[in-house]
Design a protein that fits this description.
The chain is an alpha/beta fold. The chain has helices at 3-10, 23-35, 40-57, 62-77, 103-116, 133-144, 157-171, 187-204, 222-235, 253-261, 282-289; strands spanning 91-96, 121-125, 147-149, 175-179, 210-217, 239-243, 265-269, 277-279. The protein has an eight-stranded mixed sheet with strand order 3-2-4-1-5-6-7-8, with helices on both faces. β6 (239-243), α10 (253-261) and β7 (265-269) form a beta-alpha-beta unit. α2 runs antiparallel to α3 (40-57), α3 (40-57) crosses α4 and α5 runs parallel beside α6 (133-144). It is elongated. The two termini are 19 Å apart. The mean pLDDT is 87.
């Protein structure tokens, strides 16, 4: 089952009762999009744009109206390059986010995906704060058939990353996937730690391709937008990994994040299997939503 099929199972058909694009339809559509977590501003704006297009282009047919709405939503999600840029050896991907969103799981799945593309991948257990975080990452490293660099609980995350980068250069590794501690309550500490990790990458791998991916749980809805805004301020995100999309009909948060923060969703988790982390496709996603 593909990305689109899994999403289609849990989304509502916005056009199930469609008869014509009248004011009652627009009001109901706006309410449905708000409930789907697009956020008030984004939902109102999208419906207003659709209303204008229906009037100007004289759209009557359900499929015409659906296609117009799909285009509007895709346009709002197209805010940056959705591809991961990992052309240097090594390239580095930092995973950040609060606890419980699926960071470690996403790292394991991406490691499996990249290895399937022929890349040599090394996992870095720089979350030394959470008990057993490195143990969990070890399990995923073994499942994906990738190497892992770790230290003891409570070790300096910068030291773990330094070791991982040294190992990557010595072993001819293509991509280093780095787990980080999920702490949001203290922005100053988070900022200092991420700045330190960034400095180590600059020093040890100057010119390396780098991605900073925020992992968000789709089921948290508008709280996810608050988290994303805070991390964007402190970390300078290159993309979003949206997890647990198969468990919610409120995936409109993607549109809200893209519009408000200008950060593209790059990967989407649509299940618990090792193959269930997919490249994000805005067009396919918009189709699933509507």
């Amino acid at each position: 089952m593909g990305f689109f099929d899994k999403l289609k199972k849990i989304t509502t058909n916005l056009f199930s009762g469609f008869t014509e694009a009248d004011e009652a339809f627009f009001e109901e559509l706006e309410e449905t999009l708000i409930l789907a977590d697009l956020g008030m501003d984004t939902a109102v704006m999208a419906v207003e744009q659709l209303r204008d297009r229906v009037r100007k282009e004289k759209l009557h047919d359900q499929e015409e109206v659906r296609a117009a709405l799909r285009e509007i939503l895709v346009e709002k999600m197209n805010v940056g390059d959705p591809l991961l840029h990992l052309t240097t050896s090594p390239s580095v991907v930092l995973f950040i986010g609060v606890n419980g969103v699926g960071k470690t799981t996403s790292i394991g799945k991406l490691a499996h995906r990249l290895k399937g593309e022929g890349k040599r991948v090394l996992l870095c257990a720089a979350d030394t704060f959470r008990a057993a975080a490195a143990d969990q990452l070890q399990i995923w490293a073994e499942r994906a058939g990738c190497e892992l660099v770790r230290q003891h609980e409570g070790a300096d995350p910068g030291a773990v990353l330094f070791d991982a980068l040294q190992a990557a250069k010595a072993r001819g590794v293509d991509v280093v996937l780095c787990d980080t501690a999920g702490r949001l309550h203290n922005k100053a500490n988070l900022m200092a730690e991420l700045a330190k990790l960034s400095k180590i990458i600059d020093r040890e791998c100057p010119g390396a391709d780098r991605e900073t991916l925020l992992v968000l749980d789709a089921t948290t809805g508008q709280n996810g937008l608050i988290q994303a805004r805070m991390f964007q301020e402190t970390a300078g995100l290159t993309g979003i990994v949206l997890t647990k999309l198969d468990g919610t009909a409120k995936g409109g948060i993607v549109v809200a994040i893209a519009r408000e923060l200008g950060v593209p969703v790059k990967l989407a988790g649509v299940g618990e299997g090792i193959d269930d982390l997919k490249p994000f496709d805005p067009a396919e996603y918009a189709e699933a939503i509507i």
